[in-house]
Amino acid sequence: MHTYEQALQAGKQFLLEHDDYLVVSHVQPDGDAVSSTVTVGWLLSCLGKKFTMINEGEIPQRMRFLWQADTIVNMTEHPPERKYNAIICVDCADFARVGLTRHYFEEDAVILNIDHHPTNNGYGAVNIIKPDAAATAEILFELLQRFDITWDKEIATAVYTGLLTDTGGFRYANTSPNVMAVASQLLKHGVDGPYLAQSLLEELTLPQIHILNKALSSLQMSEDGKIAWVVITPEDMQECKAANEDLEGIVNYTRNIRGVEVGIFFKVINDNAVKVSMRSAGKIDVAALAQTFGGGGHVLAAGCRLEGKLEDIVQNVLKQVRAQW
Ligand SMILES: [Mn+2]
Fold it and tell me: Which of these, 14, 2, 54, 21, lies nearest to 147 by C-alpha position?
C-alpha cells in the first residue's frame, strides 16, 4: 500500500534528483497557494537548486511580504520564453488549476503534485496528497521535517500563513489537533501570529469596504429565510475600483445570517456569464449542488460558472437549492 510516509519520501527524492524546477500554484492564488509556492522555493534554495516560481496572474498585495513572493513571475506580464522539465504543483486539485502556466511545461515534464483537496486526481508522476490536511502548507511542514534544514522566522511565517488562511484563522472544522501542533512549532520559530491575523484576515482596503457595501445592499432572502443571496455586477466593480481579490469573504455574510442554510454570491462576469459561489451552514452539500452545474468544491463551500442571463440563473440556482430539502 502507498502510504503517506512513502509519498513524502518519494517527494523528497524528487526534490533531490532534479534541478531547474518550476514551482506553480493555482490561478487566483489564495494564502495557501502563495505560501506553498514560496515554501517550496525556500526549500529548493536551501538545497542549492535552481528554480523559478510562477503564477498565471498577480500575487495579492497582502501576501507580497512573504519570502521572495515579489519574485513570483506573473505570467500575464511575462509570457513563456523557455520550458521546464521538473514541475512542482502546489494546492492544485487538478491539472487545469495551473491555468496558462502549463505553457511553460515540457511535453514530457515530470510533475510533483502536492495538495490537500479530496478531489485531487493524482495527475503527478509523484503525488503527495493528504485530504485531511487543513492546507497544503501543513503537508509542506511535514515534508520539510524530512530535510536537514534550519528553520527561521521567514519560512515559519510562510507555512503559518497557509495554515491561518485555509482554516479561516484556526476556526473551520479542518482545524485539527495536528494543525494546532504545527502552528505551535511555528510560533516557537518567532512567527508574529496577531500581526498575520490582522494583515491577512482582518484588514480591509477601501475598495473592499465599498464593494461589500454594494453586495449587502443587494441582499435578498427566500420567504422561509433559508436561502440568502447577493449580486455584484461589473458596474459595481468599476464604481468601487474593486479587484477580484476584494470579493473574498463576501459570500460568508449570506451564510452567516441566522437561520440561513445556503448563502449564495452571484458575480456577474458579463451579459452572458455569472460566477456562483455557495456556502452551506451544514445540512446541504453544496459541492454536489455545484457539480450538477459543472462546478465543484467542498461540502460546505463550492462554486460554478453558468452561462445565461442573471435573472434566469438566479431562479435556476434557487430552484435547485430548494430541491435539496
Ligand atoms: Mn489550500
Answer: 14
Residue-wise pLDDT for 108-131, tens only, equals: 999 999 999 888 889 999 999 999
How many angstroms is it from 40 CA to the middle of ligand 1?
14
Cβ neighbours around 275 below 10 Å, total: 17
pLDDT at 299: 86
Mean pLDDT of 291-319: 93
Q: Which tens digits make up the pLDDT trace of 292-301?
A: 999 887 889 8
Task: Convert 81-93 into a string of H (helix), E (strand) and C (coil).
Answer: CCCEEEEEEECCC
- Grid cell, residue 178, equals 495536528
CA of 308 to the centre of ligand 1 (A): 30
Which residues are within 5 Å of ligand 1 (an ion), measured at CB? 32, 91, 135-136, 166
Q: How far is the CA of 27 from the centre of ligand 1 (A)?
A: 12
Model confidence, pTM: 0.88
Spatial strand order in the sheet of 73-74 = 73-74, 51-55, 21-25, 84-90, 105-115, 126-129
Is there a contact between 136 and 159 (Cβ–Cβ < 8 Å)? no
What spacing in Å lies between the alpha carbon of 309 and ligand 1's midpoint?
32
Backbone angles phi, psi at 123, to 5 degrees: -75, -5
